Amino acid sequence: MNKAWWKEAVIYQIYPRSFMDSNGDGIGDIPGIISRLDYLKYLGIDVIWLSPVYRSPNDDNGYDISDYQAIMDEFGTMEDFDTLLAKAHERGIRIIMDLVVNHTSDEHKWFIESRKSGNNKFRDYYIWREGRDAQTPPNNWGSCFGGSAWQYDEETSMYYLHLFSRKQPDLNWDNPDVRKEIFDMMTWWCDKGIDGFRMDVISMISKTGEMPDGETTGLYGDFSPFCVHGPNVHKYLQEMNEKVLSKYDIMTVGETSGVTTELAKQYAGEDTHELNMVFQFEHVEGDGKYGKWTDEKMPLTTLKKILSRWQIELYDKAWNSLFWDNHDQPRAVSRFGDDRPQYQEISAKMLATCLHMLQGTPYIYQGEELGMTNYPFQNPDEFRDIESINAYEEWCVNGTVSHDVFWPCLAFKSRDNARTPVQWNDSAHAGFTTGTPWIAVNPNYKTINAKAQTANPDSVFHYYKKLIALRKQYPVIVYGKYEALLEDSEELFAYTRTYENEKLLVVCSFCDHETIFTIPDEFSEASCLITNTGQEYNNPTITLAPYEAFVLYKK
Ligand code: GLC
Ligand code: CA
């Protein structure tokens, strides 16, 4: 297997709006990030993935970009960005940018021009179609954020495609001018010295020419067969690789919802010349009761089956990302662990162990290193996220699911769970801002915060710090081959990793009661690399505490 710095790295995702506010307007910003670089250095991460900081009207918090070469006013200036990049580099931290090029904002100059007439230079930068008639869109596709995926535009009496909100029109990648504009813009950022890109919904950039109705699920038809992993997606990524990516020592990760292991080998194959790794969602999708909404946990055997398959099938062929959460997912500890006070800390450490010992590049989403939890949402007014707000409208207000049934599902999975401010200390607003935060702070900040945890060597923070350090010390953690143990257990997630003459045993309890585990003979003389209980693993048969996790190592 080829070695690469981005296989050995640990990535930390920053959602700038919620990270750290420097000027008291209640909104996180770039100077705020700069003020916390030493914290990140101390944690030991290698790369920051910066969620969008570009100019944006914020219909979808920066994922709707109106200027790719300017910084959002609320976040600071391009000078601030340059300072951030320089100061991160001084500390040996790389920065990868979120690249959102499936769509722009409807306030981008290309779209402003595009909508003006049926035959201007920019018309074909987007996807315009005639309606079936004046009241009916070209087909039945629904958008990811609710409603039709088509928006009627009076100026020219035609519809444009938006797979996300109506303020996020999809770009037409079949137009070579669009590709050139995007590649030039990427080159401009690379020349500035950034270290790579996380590519937003990159698997959706190529659409089929024919746009028939999709199978209906609920009110609208499914666009996926026509827009996800579309006909030219690999061709366009290879072109991007040739014209931009291959010229720099950067890393790339493609957000590829719905990708199979087979397709991942193409997107992120060792020698396919597209991307370095995929960011796939199989283990965090498919659990929904109403669309994606649910209040239930996936059974452990299902979760293990999915993660094991990715471990095995990509081995030596392609590279994957490892994550439990990000800015679009609920908090890991609430979803996969146990956020009741007596288990929050130990289960956060267990999840970290389980994930960081797998093969792939681990991603830590801001606050995860503190074991931050879901927010106790009580009513829809507390949401700021367009997806959550629209889902409530569509399923409850206009739909047929009662509030009492739908609410727990929405509150459990809302993206806003991940977007409450990082809890820095136990002062007002968790030290995130001196003003009024744009979204409420989780009330548990008095006990869960960075100040308390950096001071406490037994904290979740220090546990993550240790996991990151272990990765630098033991090549088996990065390059070892995975083998699953106890596949039928609904309580334990156990596996081994093997690399040359090194071997790891990883055992994680996913349940709130004690369990028995027998250590395989070959590990009887092994040493313990990390444990979240302090237990010693000298006897073959051990009783594991609720959410206990440990890693044994032998040479
Ligand atoms: C990606 C982003 C998400 C955004 C969507 C549209 O899934 O992670 O936050 O809403 O794309 O850009
Ligand atoms: Ca601010």
What is the secondary structure topology, with strand pairs?
Blueprint: H1 5-8, E1 11-14, H2 30-34, H3 37-43, E2 47-50, E3 54-55, E4 67-71, H4 78-90, E5 94-99, H5 109-114, E6 128-129, E7 150-153, E8 158-161, H6 176-192, E9 196-199, E10 216-217, E11 220-221, H7 224-227, H8 233-243, E12 251-255, H9 261-267, E13 277-279, H10 300-314, E14 321-322, H11 332-335, H12 341-356, E15 361-365, H13 386-397, H14 403-413, H15 450-455, H16 460-473, H17 475-479, E16 481-485, E17 492-499, E18 502-509, E19 515-518, E20 527-531, E21 541-544, E22 549-554
Parallel strand pairs: 1-2, 1-15, 2-5, 5-9, 9-12, 12-13, 14-15
Antiparallel strand pairs: 3-4, 6-8, 7-8, 10-11, 16-17, 17-18, 18-22, 19-21, 20-22
Bound molecules: alpha-D-glucopyranose and calcium ion (CA).
The site of calcium ion has 6 residues, from loops.
Walk me through this protein's architecture.
The chain is an alpha/beta fold. It folds into 4 domains: 5-104 and 176-373 and 415-465, Glycosidases (TIM Barrel, Alpha-Beta Barrel), CATH 3.20.20; 109-161, Oligo-1,6-glucosidase, domain 2 (Alpha-Beta Complex); 378-413, no CATH class; 478-554, Immunoglobulin-like (Sandwich), CATH 2.60.40. It is 28% helix and 17% strand. It is built from 17 helices and 22 strands. The chain has helices at residues 5-8, 30-34, 37-43, 78-90, 109-114, 176-192, 224-227, 233-243, 261-267, 300-314, 332-335, 341-356, 386-397, 403-413, 450-455, 460-473, 475-479, and strands spanning 11-14, 47-50, 54-55, 67-71, 94-99, 128-129, 150-153, 158-161, 196-199, 216-217, 220-221, 251-255, 277-279, 321-322, 361-365, 481-485, 492-499, 502-509, 515-518, 527-531, 541-544, 549-554. Strands 13-12-9-5-2-1-15-14 form an 8-stranded parallel beta sheet. The chain has a 5-stranded antiparallel beta sheet with strand order 16-17-18-22-20. The protein has a 3-stranded antiparallel beta sheet with strand order 6-8-7, with no helix packed on it. A hairpin with a 2-residue loop joins strand 10 (216-217) and strand 11 (220-221). Helix 9 packs across helix 10 (300-314) and helix 12 runs parallel beside helix 16 (460-473). It is globular, with a radius of gyration of 23 Å. Bound molecules: alpha-D-glucopyranose (GLC) and calcium ion.
